[in-house]
Design goal:
This protein is α/β, with parallel strands linked by helices. It contains eleven helices and eight strands. Helices cover 39% and strands 16% of the residues.
Length: 282
Amino acid sequence: MNSDLYYWEMVKKNIGVYSELEQKRLREAKVIIFGLGGVGGYEAILCARMGIGHISGVDPDEFEISNINRQMLALSSVVDHPKAQVAEKVVKDINPYISTNFIQAKVDEDNVEELIKGHDIVIEAVDDMPSRVIIHRTARELCIPSVGMSGSPPTRGFVSTFFPDGIPYEEALNVCKVGKKLNDEQMRKQVADIKKGRAWYSVEKGAPKEWAEDFCAGKVGWIITPMRAHLLSLFSFNEAVQILTGREPLARAPKGILIDVDSQTPVRVETAPEGGWDYKTL
């Protein structure tokens, strides 16, 4: 079977929800995903299944056993294997004709521009705040839309989409001064310490106090379940598809998709309060 026959057979169930023209736009699209773990790994799978024509992925890590609870690419057979390598193999198994460029690397201010250039949209799925700022800031400078997310214990999440002509990521989320370089240790520590505030706010929402104490002391990592990771993946991916097909996303910043599966309204779209979002509450 040639590539055209395979492609249109693979995506034929999409047609009707999306037009053939919109599907063609997806086939021609170039997407880059930063982070290939619980959120980004599932997004890579979704991109391939949806019919995105080119996927780039960036992640510095190898799989660990503790990833298996939520990361769709994590299996016992790939423990200690690079996430980027595994992701590329899986998406090519879904669509053997897909164009890919998966790299085992940590994003920083020195490599981010070269990584992002040439893509139509950036999907951010990393777990540290300095990297998030670097990714969204650079996407804006390159006039490329970016989708951002964050998740907090016990079952909360946030997704928003940033456009080059819209509000900057740093301003919308009040995480640091717009344009302030992160290469100085004090600034990076200030941005990273925001996560400690999020840990303590999470205690108010039902997370264990002992966990927050240990997290802030650097003894344990961020806690996350598959439900939260997958919801963040789905809503982030839907934002990207909306943009690539020419539709309006649900959460053009300063709007955000707020997720809390323990509440009576588990998903809602809201506009940021005056002065922007308080990131520790997201």
